[in-house]
Amino acid sequence: MEIKEIKPAEIEKKSFEIITSLLGDKKILPEHEAVVKRCIHTSADFDYADNLYFSPDVMEVLKKALKNGADIVTDTKMAQAGINKAKLLKYGGEVHCFISDEDVIEEAKKRGVTRSLVSMEKAAKLNKPVIFAIGNAPTALISLYHLITDNKIRPCAIIGVPVGFVNVVESKELIMTLDTPCIVARGRKGGSNIAAAIVNAILYLLD
Amino acid sequence: MEIKEIKPAEIEKKSFEIITSLLGDKKILPEHEAVVKRCIHTSADFDYADNLYFSPDVMEVLKKALKNGADIVTDTKMAQAGINKAKLLKYGGEVHCFISDEDVIEEAKKRGVTRSLVSMEKAAKLNKPVIFAIGNAPTALISLYHLITDNKIRPCAIIGVPVGFVNVVESKELIMTLDTPCIVARGRKGGSNIAAAIVNAILYLLD
Questions:
Q1: Do A78 and B11 touch (CB under 8 A)?
Q2: Mean pLDDT of B7-13
Q3: Hey, are the CB atoms on B78 and A187 less than 8 Å from each other?
């Protein structure tokens, strides 16, 4: 069993070198590389070299929004935990997750809908530029779709990477029909870790 | 675009039915099914049908420990966020993550080692039955290996599922050489989401 001694600061650098080498001559647009590689870094799943869709200019939009202090709204406490909040705050942004709020829980129960759906409606009332980072609930994306087409909200961009088997693929394809800039993991894969990884990849590009 | 209306409570049930059907006649031991399927549920990655190693009796050990109020120690705030803490508390357990503690940060910097390593040493001082759930840092697993072989700690079990490219495979194989009961995701894959999913799968078996 050979375990190489390696300094903490070197681990991430070395990891990205290995990812780059394993990607070989895979075609990835240079402006998308940081996001694609960080998704692979967080999952060791090379499907993210193929399944990530970037709308035109979404990277520029996201970088500009974060630099100007946009907030992030996410659908899970896990994604909230995974996002680099110190780095985000440096530019003036914070992360919101309303999923466990008492009022959200109560209203979801009353209406027989998911908490994710209600938490998006609550987010629509934030009076700040917002980026949505959805890693879990297709119902959050579907709710966002309706809020946007009803002109109730106009987010800077959507990171739409829920994972799963029920309405997940469809909810992501739906978001891609909007004019809102988006990054979407097509297919079933995604997750809170992927949502956080994408936000962090863009934050690290700002330095 | 066809999005089926489905009640929140039905989504998870339906998801597991789809997973079961997609697994087809894949051989999975009945006692491991709940864990394997929940890892697939959280990642949509069917590699977890093949890469999870269960030491003999680990499921029984984990169920008994959780039922008796064992605490969980994890290496990331994301895994901590993902674990069902209400369910855990029902049996008397709580989740610890020391990775962002001031003393851990300071000591890691001083010694030039990872915070994950130091956070395991801190966990070794807990005076309670403990299950480790490691989803990120191979250095946490390597540290645990040494703490166990030096008789400084004796955890109930280890859930060893770090993800990545540097020392990850090796650290997991190392844990499998111990007598400590373990669940390990062999290979590069894993993550905080997988660590949380495994803990939750076992908690849900207790009901």
A1: no
A2: 85
A3: no
